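Posting this for the archive.
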Amino acid sequence: MKVLNFVLATTGPTLTNLKILSRYAYSAVRHMTPRKFVNLTRVEWARWRAKDVVGGFPYVLKIESTNICNQRCPFCLDRDRSKIDEDGRGFGRMHTECFEQAIDLLAPTTLRLNMYGSGEPVLYPEVYEMIRYAADRNIGVTISCNLSAFKKENAEKLVQSGLEHLIVSCHGASPETYDKYNIGGDFWRTIENMKAIVDAKKKLGSRRPFVDWQFLRFRHNQHEIPKARRMAKDIGVNAIRFINPNIPPEHKEEWRPLRDDEVGDHNANKGEGKVLASPGVRIKESDQAAARGDRDPAGERSADRGQAPKADVQSCTWLYRSMFINWDGGILPCCDGTTEPGHDLGHFTGQTKEEFEAFWNGDTYRYLRRMANFQVPREEMNKKFTCSVCIKTHMPYLLYERGFQLEPKLEKRLKATEPDLEARRQRWRDEGVSVSSGDAGDR
């Protein structure tokens, strides 16, 4: 377990990850207080020691103001939106009273609020009041939106709301590429709205919000990366980031972006083609095939190395640092599994500090932290919780089964959790079968 663990939810090259982390660092520096520093230290101490009880509260919140969206992006976490209405939690928007109660409770320890989930935050006018409410309580507020339903006349209102970071999801540099993923959106309106917000910042003499164009890389749009960079410069956004999205296995053949070694025009990628095995996992490019299960590293160990390929695996930090609150108050450990209320760990109803602390360190959260720290055998993971099928929870076991050498302390923990892990490694070599097959192993 590393003292510094900067695991992100998305994958991408080092430069892109640093761009993301820099915004969190900015929020931490700008909004830090002695009390928040003590809280952060207690949280990180518990995480570093892999404890299931945390002496502090989450310092990064994710609150969904609405799950209603004007677009139908294919790989959104809630891409099958019919299930939300028929069998799930339904569609709606968070009551401002619920939002304010959550902010009042957690503002003293919170550095950053990501105020978005499965919906489009700027669809409803109360978003500006919500941003202002949190910003006035010394929290750095971020929203992520597609901007295609945004009204240009609200640009100054958005700038004056106190918003610190604006992420714009625009996945193409032309209508043709944009329309393939941003289904139901309007490319040129999105571009014009970005320009309007940049112009409003200049007019009002404001440095904020930091306007951040997020571009998901797919096979059909990666050739437009140079064009997107030029457009971003012309518009005047603060940054453009190219992200490697999580693509469902059945769609990878069509959608997966080509790696640097698969394309002839390296200028199209500019180093953006290195796709990690998973967030929080570092593996040499030459060993990626073994990590995917495409080849067995046994017998292919080079003479100069004389050992198995290595992997650096970090545990999930969400269960220590963060919390996700759905529009209806349902609480999840992260933004996955938002469709079904059955995945909720609890419900925010305006709890007192004491009640929240009892929940934060209650049986469920303690169990999930043990799972995240690889202290629960895979067969015993409760499928009610999304953590049980998360690739992060399964990744070190998968890599060990596939012949990788992990950090000694981590290997010791895995073998203590699953004493027959050596036999399972042999089974993978003989039959290509893993305990994780059908869950995270096939993602």
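Confidence is low (pLDDT under 50) at residues 1-11, 301-305. The two ends are 25 Å apart (CA to CA).
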